[in-house]
Design brief:
mainly beta, seven-stranded antiparallel sheet
Amino acid sequence: MLRYTTSGQLDPTFDGDAVMTTTLGGINAVFNELVLQPDGKIVVAGLRDWDPPGPDNNQKNMFVARYADNGAPDNSFGLAGTNYMTVPVSGNAYTVGRCSDGKIVAAGEIGEQYALARFTPSGQLDTSFGPAGTGWVTHTLGGPDTEQFEAVACLDDGTILAAGCTAEGFFSTLVDAVVFQYRPDGTLDPAFGTGGIVRQDVAGESESLWGTLVQDDGKILVSGHASIGGRMYALLMRFNPDGTLDTSFDGDGIVTDTFGYMNVQIFNNVLMLPSGTIVGVGAARTGDDSVLAMAGYEPDGRRNPNFGKNGVVLTPLEGAERFGASDAAVTYDNKIATAGYATFSGVDHISVVRYRTPEFTQTTISPAAEAFLSTHI
C-alpha cells in the first residue's frame, strides 16, 4: 500500500517511506481494494496465503485488515494481537465497502462461489449476518469457475448490492453480468430481480461487471465490458431499485461504447460528478497501443459533449506498453484521481493520474508530467 501527497509525491509520513508491505503473518498477502473510514483509518480487503500447522497446508483466505492513517497496523481490529480477520474457508475478497453503521462488507469468492462477508466495526465476523451466524454467505448459479463478485455497495438501510459475472454453463465461454441484492441479515432480497438476483445478457456473448454506484434516487449504475462481434466494448448499465433495467438510460438501460480500439475497451469503475455527469473509467487497447480511457455521460445515457472531446478522454503514456485505470475517485476538490497500471519494457508500475474537471487534456503524457506519477516496488 502506498500513499501520495496532494502534490503527487510519495508521502514519507506514511509508514516512514510512503510504502507499506506485509504478509499478515503468512506466506503472502494481496490487498485488492481499500476504503477510508471517516476517522482516517484505512480498511483493506484481499487474500491471505498462509501455512497452518497440521496436514492441511497452504490455505488462502478472504480477509479484512485495518491501519491507522500513518500506515501503522491497528491492533484494536480483528484477531487479538493482530490487525486483521479472515473468513475461515478458502476464498478471496476482491472488493470492500463500508456501511453507514460502520460495519464492513467484503465481497469476492469462497470455494469458487459468490461470497459476501460482513464484519463489525471492530473487525469481528458479524454473527447477525449469514446462516447460523457465520458472518458470510455464498451462492452459486451453476457456473464452473467464474462465480465471483468484483464490486459491492452498502445502502443506508443496510441492504447490500454485489456485482460480478457468471458463465452460462459448464464448459461455456459465454458469461453474463450479475447483480445480487442482500437484506441486512444476508438473505437474498426477493423484491429485487428474480429472487434477489439480476442476470443480464447484453448481446448474446460475454459481459462482466467491475464497478457499481448507487445514485441518490436509489438507481444502480454498474460498469464493465461486453463482447460484441468479437470486440470488447465499454459497458454501463442502470437498474431501477427493483432490479429492472432503467429505460430512461439510453432507451434500454444499457450503454455500450467504443473509442476506436480493437482489442479492449473497458470501464473498471463508474463515478458521478457533482454536476450529475456519469463517468466511466478504465482502459482501451489495440495491440501495444494502450490508453487510459474515460467517458462522460448525461443522466439519460447520452455522451456529455462538455466532457473531454466529444465526451471522451483518451490518455496515452509515452513509452508504456500497457496503461490504464483500475479504479478512480472524485477528490474533495472535484478532481478525478485514477489508480492503475503502467508497463515499461515488461516491468509493471503502479500509476496514478489526476484530472481537472470539467477541463481535460487529450495529449500524450510523459512519466515526468505533473498529472502523472509511476512507482515500481
